[in-house]
Inverse folding.
């Protein structure tokens, strides 16, 4: 079977995003197992029903990456115990127009890191509600909450965290593959 193609939704859009650093490590550590597409979510306009039937090219490009994917990896920051607007906006775009939701049936993984002690627990808990409403097949276990380790500033992870991430990666690959063969 070919390597699964994963579309990564990275909710951090700032220049030095911690979520982006975590995604880069995820990608590097899983390059033998999966392929990734990435889209800068700040290129999407705010969703409006005024433009949902005739959206700008950036939205079409974004939707094509969802269509081409075998699975979705969501890397979320935590904003005020929830997930950021950029991520919600992207999820809303992929869900519309009515009856044309592109997320439906997609296997999904959810990870995140933040300087706070709960390591994006609040953001992920709220995201799970939205992803299940969108009929995505979210991997329930293992979970991945990470209090941002200092080493990640330089694009590295402590060995114990790398092992933790590796277990997540292997389970996620199995999860996506099990849906590819359905
Ligand atoms: C508006 C805002 C709200 C935040 N709220 C939380 C929070 O509830 N919990 C937390 O752990 N960190 C919080 N933070 C800190 C973020 O975790 C931190 O800025 C992180 O770098 C954001 O992820 P990113 O770098 O990928 O954008 C908040 C940051 C901002 C800008």
């Amino acid at each position: 079977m070919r390597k699964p193609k994963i579309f990564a939704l990275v909710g951090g859009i700032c220049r030095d995003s911690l979520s982006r650093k975590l995604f880069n490590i995820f990608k590097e550590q899983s390059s033998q197992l999966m392929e990734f597409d990435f889209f800068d979510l700040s290129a999407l306009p705010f969703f409006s029903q005024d433009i949902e039937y005739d959206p700008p090219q950036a939205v079409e490009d974004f939707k094509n990456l969802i269509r081409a994917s075998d699975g979705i990896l969501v890397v979320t920051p935590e904003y005020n115990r929830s997930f950021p607007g950029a991520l919600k906006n992207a999820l809303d775009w992929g869900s519309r127009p009515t009856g044309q939701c592109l997320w439906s049936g997609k296997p999904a993984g959810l990870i995140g890191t933040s300087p706070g002690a709960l390591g994006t627990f609040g953001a992920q808990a709220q995201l799970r509600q939205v992803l299940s409403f969108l009929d995505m097949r979210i991997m329930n276990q293992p979970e991945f909450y990470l209090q941002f380790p200092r080493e990640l500033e330089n694009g590295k992870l402590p060995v114990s965290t790398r092992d933790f991430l590796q277990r997540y990666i292997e389970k996620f690959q199995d999860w996506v593959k099990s849906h590819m063969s359905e």
